Amino acid sequence: MSSKQQTTATDTKEKVLAEFKEPLVLKRMTDARSMREEFGMAPWDREAFDFPSVIPNCLEHSWDSPTDEVDGGTDWLARGKPGTGKSTLANYLTVRLLESNREKVVWRGSSSRSEWLPLAPWTTLYLPEGVDISVRLEPKVPTRDAVNIDVDELTEIVREVRRYADPRELNQTLDEGSLHVVYPDPRMRGCQEVYDASPEKQYDTPPKRETLFSEEDPASHWWFAWVLARVEHGPHHWTSLIFDEIGDVCPQSASKDTFGTYQKVELLKDTWVDARKFGLSVYAFAHSETDVHQMIRRKLRWRVQMPGTANPTKASDVVGFESIRMNHDVTSRYDVGEALMYTESNFESFGWDDMPSPSSYKLKIAPEVR
After folding, report:
1. Spatial distance between the Cα atoms of 297 and 88, rounded to a whole number of angstroms
2. Domains of the chain, CATH where assigned
3. Could you read off the pLDDT of 62-73 as tens digits, one per residue?
4. Nearest to residue 275, comparing CAs of 218, 226, 344, 341?
């Protein structure tokens, strides 16, 4: 690269990084309040809803819930086509969880997505220890050039960058009342050890392998071990996982392949009930119900229907439900920023305001391929 090209690239990098809001270290205000004030969100108010067992119970976590509400961790599956507001809903949900429960929120980092960027100034970013990482800022307009940045420069975008060695160690370092975006370890270090320490959960080993977890696995399989580690080894403070695009990890097409994908989906299914008992909530997002394996869908007690597609009107439309209270379509007429949450016993609509990304660039974080 010529000195002129190098100067231009440096200027472009500085310009793009300047688009991001400066990371925040707060002393007199919680992250949740700071986020709310930044995006003009009113304080959480459970009295604003008609049916406490639907939205308030799903978002508020307690070991002593009011009558007709459940204790422990909760869950949902929010489904909707691209462009229907799932990403903004995930950011809105994060703020409400931090505000209502002062819990540890973990967002599944993906090398192809960075929908958490509106909350970047409050984010602690976790990367696997000893793994070379490439970081690129890619423009939403594909005719523009991408910008490469160093891992050290991520602190111009997020509050803190931490490295972790394995799932158990990571969980020991999560902060209450904070958002953590976690990128999985492609080497799967500590994953088999977590599995081996769980004598009640034993599944078929993939063909021609001696272990269920291996660094040959897709990096996304790390999340199966993380959930197991959190449930069986704690700490058991309130924790929520923002499981963006769960269908990529737990597809309906999962099979007993060379990576043991089906066995790991079964492992997650068997861990789900224990997750509730130990204060872990899982909020999953998908384009369609059928993207997600039915073993997982049967465990999800709340659903969110995004706009632009009809909500179900009979129980047979929803795997895991025995009843549906809606008898006609309303959500296909909703605008972006409005959705319908429902359980087997009730339903209620809710809305949220836009939470725009600070930059026109997307952040791509991935292990370097050698």
Report:
1. 23
2. 3-367 (3.40.50.300)
3. 999 999 999 999
4. 226
